[in-house]
Write a structure and sequence with these properties.
alpha+beta, three-stranded antiparallel beta sheet, three-stranded mixed beta sheet, 140 residues, 3 helices, flat
Amino acid sequence: MSEIATGDENNEDNIVLLGRMLFLKALKLKADLMLTTNLYETRMFEPGTQFNPTYMIAERKDGSRLTGLNKKIDRKVKLCLFPALYSYDAKPLPETDWVDVGNVNISEIVVQCRNFLSRGDNRSQDGGILLGKAIVLLED
């Protein structure tokens, strides 16, 4: 990966191999997320947001991680490179033998590959399980 970070183009085979590996990992992640009943949310952090190591990882421009950072550090996000990923339990189905068919939203019952929460969803920010931290660059 250092060949990519330094811009060395002599190792085109390594770059192609890395690209294929990243593609396969992304495809597997998509399949895993689509084959579950959980809901997911990605959270980007705006520039100026206070750095919090609970849900952020700070990196340098070359891609190496900054270590030894804690909540007491007074640094702010310069750029969010990759969002944090949160998981939420799906809404439970009604527990009854009789359901008024006229009032049932079938799209909430049938898996429709829409398991990412939108910005206006009221479940956002409450009770999510952090699956992956955001990757950020910090201000100097």
